[in-house]
């Protein structure tokens, strides 16, 4: 009996140690806290040993860029009726103690999560922020209007390195439904997060976030993790003929993220951008990112 008790204590202690040492990731989005994509991403990261916390809008707030507004109680029911009208400005999912809604814009939900929720769930600031995967691509100039990008940029402004994920496939529906696209996108996102974390802190250069876009996935296309190939990219076309990007596969101009996604082959675009302007970083900063996660990138087959 004593042996059993000691064993249980040992297991409990091991669980506590694991929880306390896993890298702490705050997860936001702009499609709303109850969509499959964000919940699958959190679950997949958690199963990989990370500590996770979702802090996302109470409803679909696509296209909110970096808008902010203090969270207010819900006037109407929250997304997919997951929150009753009249509920508090922020709350937790009764079935998931690490999933929180914030009734405001994506950037505010991220800020609120960092300042108010993370201290109680993590006991400290998050180590890394992830947003999405958004339902729908965020490529080129569209990034200026994206709440997925806005929430990631907000995290960087609070000193938290951030990665925004978006996918050309999938749809916005409740997380309790099966969603193979959300499942595979979550695994691809985790592969990138693993590489960033393995590169050591600081996970990204100061004031920089990553914009990551996944290609279309459906029943027959890009269905499993091994189908996906990462490529370093630019957010926008480089209109200055004299500037050069970091060298990739013998080329000193990175492809635009749009061209990577349009080229097929289940290629994933990874662009580094300044959190303040949401524009491309310079060559030296591209190189700094490449020196950290360059092992992930492949030349076009
Ligand atoms: C979410 O909001 C965006 C922007 O208003 C809209 O285009 C999209 O259809 C909405 N999605 C759903 C599932 O309502």
From TrEMBL:
**Keyword Hydrolase on entry:** yes
> Which GO terms of the molecular function aspect are on file?
metal ion binding; nucleotidase activity
Keywords, alphabetical: Hydrolase, Metal-binding
- Tell whether Plastid is among the UniProt keywords: no
**Recorded superkingdom:** Eukaryota
Q: Where is the Survival protein SurE-like phosphatase/nucleotidase domain?
A: 25-223
Q: PANTHER family recorded for this chain?
A: 5'-NUCLEOTIDASE SURE, PHOSPHATASE, PUTATIVE (AFU_ORTHOLOGUE AFUA_4G01070)-RELATED
Q: Which family does it belong to?
A: Belongs to the SurE nucleotidase family.
Its recorded name reads Survival protein SurE-like phosphatase/nucleotidase domain-containing protein
Organism encoding this protein:
Serendipita vermifera MAFF 305830
């Amino acid at each position: 009996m004593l042996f059993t008790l000691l064993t249980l204590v040992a297991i409990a202690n091991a669980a506590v140690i694991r929880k306390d040492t896993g890298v702490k990731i705050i997860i936001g989005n702009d499609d709303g806290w109850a969509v499959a994509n964000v919940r699958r991403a959190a679950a997949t990261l958690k199963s990989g040993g990370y500590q996770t916390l979702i802090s996302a809008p109470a409803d679909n707030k696509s296209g909110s860029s970096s808008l902010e507004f203090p969270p207010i109680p819900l006037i109407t029911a929250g997304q997919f009726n997951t929150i009753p009208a009249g509920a508090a400005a922020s709350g937790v999912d009764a079935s998931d103690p690490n999933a929180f809604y914030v009734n405001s814009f994506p950037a505010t939900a991220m800020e609120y999560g960092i300042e108010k929720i993370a201290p109680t769930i993590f006991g400290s600031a998050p180590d890394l922020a992830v947003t999405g995967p958004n339902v729908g691509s965020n490529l080129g100039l569209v990034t200026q209007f994206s709440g997925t990008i806005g929430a990631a940029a907000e995290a960087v402004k609070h000193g938290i390195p951030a990665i925004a994920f978006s996918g050309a496939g999938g749809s916005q529906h409740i997380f309790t439904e099966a969603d193979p696209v959300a499942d595979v996108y979550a695994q691809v996102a985790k592969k990138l997060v693993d590489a960033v974390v393995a590169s050591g802190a600081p996970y990204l250069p100061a004031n920089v976030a990553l914009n990551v876009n996944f290609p279309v996935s459906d029943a027959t296309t890009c269905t499993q993790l091994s189908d996906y190939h990462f490529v370093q990219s630019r957010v926008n076309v480089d209109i200055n003929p004299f500037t050069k990007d970091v060298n990739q596969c013998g080329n000193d101009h990175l492809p635009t993220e749009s061209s990577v996604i349009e080229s097929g082959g289940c290629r994933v675009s990874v662009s580094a951008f300044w959190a303040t302007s949401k524009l491309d970083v310079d060559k030296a900063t591209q190189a700094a990112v490449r020196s950290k996660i360059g092992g992930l990138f492949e030349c076009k087959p």
